[in-house]
Structure formats: structure tokens, C-alpha cells
């Protein structure tokens, strides 16, 4: 098994950010600067075409660390964040750009490509989680959350379905195709984000994926607005969701 | 115009509770015990068959006062909380109980009766708001919110549609019949609560009422569970919603 190898470290606003690798996979870990108390871990999956330190990811990580004292880890998806692309990656990305230029629906290509990426990413996430739990400030006993929208949901749903260490998750902004059957196996608490006026994902599709989760506790947050207009207060809501389910108090109200 | 006449006063957990009347209408006002600083006002409408000091109402009032320093006011709906019932009230309540005993749908009776009650309650709310704004600790300039589910939505939607003093509202748990056309006139920020497995209100009905609001900022919170199983964290979410829109910081995280 691979271990976490730290490659860089910075600190700002009470948060320590450490780049790491686990084998060939690149990642980042955010932790409270105040000390190395053992604390729950939240895994964050980024969206398609972005990377582990996309501004939205860094912002969410800071809210989770400063709001609840969590550790927050993310890894670059295959072909993302400087990780090498396969010929298949290049073909699918070209197909997506062609569809966009032609004004054709992106959905069928994104659904198919994300399902492919999830097959590669799920074992990478499991190896990263194994390695992260070897760190003394995380440990193997603490609860683990998962937070990922868009492609982060396409990867997070199959990961969560087979990974009993994940005990609460925030998902959203994805089509039900290829995911709904897997979501039916998931029973942990879920918060699910969708956009009421999403120009890519129909209401019916978004609601169908939320409906599929077998979780007794699940909450849908649907906001007026288009695909990329998820309000920033949903990140604060996710902090409170993880605080409830991973057993930490919110110390910094937002 | 009637003024607010206070009839009783108690205090607990940092919250002062004062019973009042405005003309024939009975109400309650909760305020911070710490002082008489001018602060925004949140109006709360209770559900059908309950009253101004139903435990859920008192709980929400305390969260709003201690979380943000708001003033919170409610009035008994016509025929509720000891206010006299008309012959028509008695007939409708009897019809509702008959439907329940027979296992028939409550919706058609509740929709019709709530619409009738709203016609009587809206002018009462406006008179109460006029009188409350005469109090020095509230004043006429501050923002006003409205928070009401079930019958509180049936009354709150027509009230909000004609009442420009209300600038943010939490609604939910109601059928769209008789309300959707009015909701289309409402453009203020809305948080809307529905239950995903509501045994009285179908998903399609609940979503249709949310959809009807013309608000640019509106958020749907749909939770797994039956009609009466709205999770308590939705009350905390409402506190944060009003904090965002009525311009107060959340001082007591929940």
C-alpha cells in the first residue's frame, strides 16, 4: 500500500494546506493550524474540467476546517489537475467541446465519460483514504464524509456505495443515468443540491437522482438559478450537515 | 387603528414573552431579554388546529430571538387559540374530522377552509403589523420577515403578496390550489419546506407551489419523511435565512 507523501505546505487564515501524492495520484489536505487534534475527515471530489485546488474547492475546504475543525482531503481525478490524459480522455473531451460548440446537449457525453472516470477514480480514492487514515491526526476510527457535486457526484456515488467508512455525503448536480441504481444501495444521510433552472440537467432528472437514494435521512436543496449558479450559502449548509453527522460543533457561524 | 395592549409577560432563557391583543385578536411577542435595541421583526403564522403558543411556535421564536436578536410576533388565526368560532368554522372542522375518520383525502377541505380563513386573517395581520410597528423597539423602518407552514402558508402567501413591508419569507407544506396564482406575484426571497413522503400533499403538488413563486432567490428544502416529520434543523435553517435577508448576524450557532 502507498503512503501519503507531502510535497508542499502553506498556511493561511488558520488553515494548513499540504499537497501530497499517494502513488501517482496528486492531492491536497487542509487541516486546522491550531494543532493536530484527531478530527473527522471530509473527502471532497472536484467537478469535471477542474482540479483539486479549484477556487471553489479551496473555499469549501477552508469553511469546513475553520467552521468545525475537520481535516479535508481531495485528489485530482484521472486526467485532471496535470495528471496525464489517455487517448480515450482526449477523445471524450474533444467530443464534449464539439457538442458545446454545436449547441448540442452535453448530458449524454458527460454521463458516459464520468462513468468511465469513476471506474478509474474509485480505487484511487480508496487507496488515498487508506493512506490518509495512517496519519496520526486522522486515524482509522473517525467518521468520514464525502462532498462532491457534478463529476464529484458521479465518482462519489459509486465510491460511497462500496465504502462503509463514508457515513454522510453531500451530492448533487448530476443526471440519474448510470447513478440511480447505485444510489439505491446508499442508506447514509445525504444532502443533495440541484439547480431549479439548470440548463443541462432537467428538473425531472435531478429529482430522480435524489429520489433514488435509500437513505432514511435525505434533504434536497433546490435553488432558483442555472447550472453554475449554486448559491454560496450551500457551502455553509454542507458544513452544518457534516457537523451534525460527523459529530462536531460549528464553532464559527456563517 | 388599534394599538398593542400587553396582557401578560414572562421571561426564560434570555427571551421575554409578552401576550398581547390588537382589538379582538390575541397574539404573542418574543424579544431579547438583553434590551430594547431596535431589531427586525419576524411574523410567524401557526398551522391549522393549533395556536399562537403551540410548542413548535415557541421553539422557533426562541431560536429566532436568541440566534439573531429578532423580535418575533404571532397572532391566533380566526377560530383558533380560544378565539370564537363561527358556524361556518364548526361546519368545516366537522367536515375535516369526518373525512379523516372515513380515511378520505383532507386536501380539498383544508384547501377550501384555509382560503376562507386567509380572507379573514390577512387584514388582521396587517392591523397587527401596523400596531407592532408603533412599538419603539420595532419601529416602522425595519425589515419584516414571515415564517409559516401549513395554514401559516395559506395565510402568509396572500398576506405577503399585498404587504410590501414583508421582505423575506419561509413557506411550505401546502397544496398549490388557491395559492399558486397569488405566489406568482411574490418576488421576495423565499425558503420553501416540503416533505418528500407527505401522505397528504403529493410531490407534484408541493413542487408546483414552490415553482409558482416569481422570486429570483428561492430555495426548496425537501426532506425525506411524512407530513409531520419536518426535521428540527429546518427551524435553524430558517433562522439563518432571516439572518441573511433581514440583515443580522447569527450570534448563537446551531
CATH class of chain A: Alpha Beta
Oligomer: homodimer
Compute the number of strand runs of chain A.
9
Q: What is the CATH superfamily of chain A? A: Alpha/Beta hydrolase fold, catalytic domain
Task: Return the CATH topology of chain A.
Answer: Rossmann fold
What number of domains of chain A? 1
Mean pLDDT level of chain A: 95
Low-confidence stretches of chain A: none
* Strand arrangement in the largest pleated sheet of chain A: 1-2-3-5-4-6-7-8-9
Task: Give the structural class of chain A.
Answer: alpha/beta
- Quote the distance from N terminus to C terminus of chain A: 39 Å
Summarize the structure.
Chain A is α/β, with parallel strands linked by helices.
Describe the model.
Chain A has 254 residues and is α/β, with parallel strands linked by helices. The first copy, chain A, has a single domain, classed as Rossmann fold, CATH 3.40.50. In chain A, 37% of the residues lie in helices and 23% in strands. Chain A contains 7 helices and 9 strands, in the order ββββαβααβαβαβαβα. Chain A has a 9-stranded mixed β-sheet, sandwiched between helices. β9 of chain A pairs antiparallel with β9 of chain B.
Amino acid at each position: 500500500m502507498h503512503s501519503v507523501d507531502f510535497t508542499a505546505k502553506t498556511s493561511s487564515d488558520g488553515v494548513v494546506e499540504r499537497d501530497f501524492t499517494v502513488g501517482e495520484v496528486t492531492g491536497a489536505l487542509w487541516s486546522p493550524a491550531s494543532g493536530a487534534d484527531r478530527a473527522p475527515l471530509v473527502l471532497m471530489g472536484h467537478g469535471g474540467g477542474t482540479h483539486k485546488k479549484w477556487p471553489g474547492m479551496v473555499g469549501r475546504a477552508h469553511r469546513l476546517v475553520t467552521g468545525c475543525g475537520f481535516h479535508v482531503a481531495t485528489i485530482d481525478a484521472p486526467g485532471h489537475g496535470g495528471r496525464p490524459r489517455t487517448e480515450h480522455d482526449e477523445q471524450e473531451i474533444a467530443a464534449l467541446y464539439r457538442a458545446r460548440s454545436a449547441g448540442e446537449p452535453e448530458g449524454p457525453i458527460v454521463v458516459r465519460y464520468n462513468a468511465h472516470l469513476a471506474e478509474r477514480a474509485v480505487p484511487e480514492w480508496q487507496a488515498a483514504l487508506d493512506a490518509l487514515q495512517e496519519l496520526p491526526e486522522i486515524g482509522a476510527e473517525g467518521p468520514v464524509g464525502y462532498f462532491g457535486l457534478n463529476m464529484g457526484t458521479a465518482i462519489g456515488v459509486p465510491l460511497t456505495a462500496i465504502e462503509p467508512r463514508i457515513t454522510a455525503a453531500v451530492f448533487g448536480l448530476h443526471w440519474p443515468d448510470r447513478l440511480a441504481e447505485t444510489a439505491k444501495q446508499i442508506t447514509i444521510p445525504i444532502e443533495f443540491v440541484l439547480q431549479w433552472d439548470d440548463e443541462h440537467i432537467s428538473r425531472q432528472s435531478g429529482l430522480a437522482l435524489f429520489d433514488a437514494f435509500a437513505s432514511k435521512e435525505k434533504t434536497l436543496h433546490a435553488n432558483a438559478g442555472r447550472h453554475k449558479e449554486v448559491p454560496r450559502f450551500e457551502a455553509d449548509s454542507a458544513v452544518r450537515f457534516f457537523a451534525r453527522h460527523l459529530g462536531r460543533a460549528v464553532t464559527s457561524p456563517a
